[in-house]
């Protein structure tokens, strides 16, 4: 994507569409019809291309948020458009009780490339984690006398369904809609002794994110994740890695576990797998392959259209040199952020591959996100003092340079506001 690619939508058709949008969607009435369950910026986005998004006023934004790390190949990449258009022409959905080519092709390719024996496709990360918990409990029924407890980390986020929410660390959600599902216990992240002490006869699995995202982009240490794997082997329990965000190249390798030289029994994927469409996967290896017909299902599981999209994403990631490029460009992003951090006296920079978190010296992350939006840059703030960067895996160095310029302007804007605030 060209650095100065701030052009307007391509065709007059797009232009018309873009210009007719505000009159409909800017009305207060249509916004009021949406439950206020999600806080949203005022913009209405009408078009995306690579690392750029355009709103209904044809204003361009550089996107280092990418739908929350879902658009792994950026907005509307040609391979994804083609795979989905071809599949939509041929067949959208025969139903989850039947095979379809996308489902079969992606299953084989995903198992081969991740060293897994079986896969089940689902729609969301939360759903994949529900599946992982069910799989672990099934294994506990068969091999560990009905053991069912799953140990997770404090500040972890595994999704918002009841099982996934109950598994998530306390403090992660504003409202947990008590009562929670029983059978989960949280221990501090990167603390091996705490984990060891929490295992008992009822424990069936340990479930972790290799890099905690919502906690503020906190990577597991190598010592820790290796130790967790060893502990699971010694105690005869399962290791579940929630790679919904870290998987599919986000951390510079196909799965983040490869960065650690660790091999989980169960891995969940989501977000980047579909390249922007809802697709998730539950991967199982060896002894963890124990589900029987009828034990896991869903209307859209293995949907032909979505698995076709997943196939296009995976093929792209497996192309020669793609992941090396992610690591190289990720390094360039890291260096740029580090330079900016030192200039603005910010805190720690954490992450891997194309997944970075920058800690600020105060709780101004939300203000910086707002200022960045004003400067035409999309980023997110997982914590009050932390900025998160999840650009397209194929983002260009030119776009990284442009992002750093806009981010510097956003910092300056926030700093000026803070000074003015102090004076008055
Ligand atoms: C986003 C996320 C989830 C939840 O995925 P949804 O598709 O929103 O249900 C679970 N785990 C991790 C690590 C995530 O980042």
Account of the protein in words:
With 424 residues, this protein is α/β, with parallel strands linked by helices. The protein folds into two domains: 18-75 and 322-423, Aspartate Aminotransferase, domain 1 (Alpha-Beta Complex), CATH 3.90.1150; 91-317, Aspartate Aminotransferase, domain 2, CATH 3.40.640. It is 41% helix and 17% strand. The strands form four sheets. It has a seven-stranded mixed sheet, sandwiched between helices. The chain has a four-stranded mixed sheet with strand order 1-2-3-15. A four-stranded antiparallel sheet has the order 13-14-17-16, with helices on one face. Helix 7 links the parallel strand 5 (149-153) and strand 6. Helix 4 (78-90) runs antiparallel to helix 11 and helix 13 (365-374) crosses helix 14. Residues 1-22 have low confidence and may be disordered. It binds pyridoxal-5'-phosphate (PLP). Pyridoxal-5'-phosphate binds next to helix 6.
Summarize the structure.
This protein is α/β, with parallel strands linked by helices. The protein is 41% helix and 17% strand. The protein contains 14 helices and 17 strands.
Tell me the number of strands.
17
Under CATH, the topology of the largest domain can be stated as Aspartate Aminotransferase, domain 2
Main structural class = alpha/beta
Q: Mind summarizing the main beta sheet?
A: 7 strands, mixed
Question: Could you give the order of strands across the largest sheet?
Answer: 4-12-11-10-7-5-6
What is the beta-strand fraction? 15-25%
N-end to C-end Cα span: 44 Å
Mean pLDDT over the full residue set: 93
Number of H- or I-type helical stretches: 14
What's the shape? globular
Radius of gyration: 22 Å
CATH class of the largest domain: Alpha Beta
Low-confidence stretches: 1-22
Q: What's the CATH H-level superfamily name of the largest domain?
A: Type I PLP-dependent aspartate aminotransferase-like (Major domain)
Helix content: 40-55%
State the domain count. Answer: 2
CATH architecture of the largest domain: 3-Layer(aba) Sandwich
User: Which small-molecule species are bound to the chains here?
Assistant: pyridoxal-5'-phosphate
């Amino acid at each position: 994507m060209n650095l100065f690619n701030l052009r307007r939508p391509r065709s007059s058709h797009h232009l018309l569409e873009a210009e007719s949008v505000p009159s409909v969607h800017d009305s207060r009435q249509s916004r009021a019809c949406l439950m206020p369950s999600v806080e949203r910026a005022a913009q209405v986005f009408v078009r995306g291309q690579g690392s750029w998004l355009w709103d209904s006023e044809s204003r361009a934004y550089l996107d280092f948020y990418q739908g929350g790390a879902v658009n792994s190949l950026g907005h509307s990449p040609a391979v994804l458009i083609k795979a989905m258009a071809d599949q939509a022409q041929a067949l959208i959905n025969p139903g989850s009780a039947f095979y379809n080519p996308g489902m079969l092709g992606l299953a084989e390719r995903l198992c081969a490339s991740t060293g897994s024996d079986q896969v089940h496709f689902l729609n969301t990360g939360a759903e994949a984690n529900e599946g992982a918990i069910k799989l672990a409990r099934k294994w506990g029924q068969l091999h560990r006398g009905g053991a069912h407890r799953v140990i997770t980390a404090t500040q972890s986020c595994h999704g918002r369904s009841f099982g996934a929410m109950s598994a998530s660390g306390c403090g992660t959600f504003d409202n947990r809609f008590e009562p929670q599902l029983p059978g989960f216990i949280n221990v501090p992240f990167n603390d091996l002794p705490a984990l060891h002490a929490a295992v008992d006869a009822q424990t069936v699995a340990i479930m972790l994110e290799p890099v905690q995202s919502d906690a503020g982009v906190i990577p597991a240490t190598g010592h820790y994740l290796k130790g967790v794997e060893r502990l699971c082997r010694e105690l005869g329990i399962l290791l579940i890695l929630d790679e919904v965000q870290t998987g599919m190249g986000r951390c510079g390798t196909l799965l983040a576990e490869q960065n650690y030289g660790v091999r989980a029994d169960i891995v969940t994927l989501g977000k980047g797998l579909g390249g922007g469409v809802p697709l998730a996967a539950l991967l199982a290896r060896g002894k963890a392959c124990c589900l029987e017909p009828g034990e896991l299902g869903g209307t859209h599981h293995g949907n032909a259209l979505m698995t076709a999209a997943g196939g296009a994403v995976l093929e792209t990631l497996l192309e020669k040199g793609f992941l090396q490029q992610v690591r190289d460009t990720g390094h360039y992003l890291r260096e740029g952020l580090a330079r900016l951090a030192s200039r603005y006296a910010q805190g720690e920079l954490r992450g891997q591959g194309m997944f970075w978190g920058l800690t600020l010296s105060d709780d101004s992350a939300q203000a910086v996100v707002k200022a960045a939006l004003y400067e035409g840059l999309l980023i997110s703030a997982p914590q009050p003092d932390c900025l998160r960067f999840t650009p397209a895996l194929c983002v260009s160095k030119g776009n990284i340079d442009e992002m750093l310029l806009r981010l510097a302007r956003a910092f300056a804007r926030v700093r000026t506001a803070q000074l003015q605030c102090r004076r008055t």
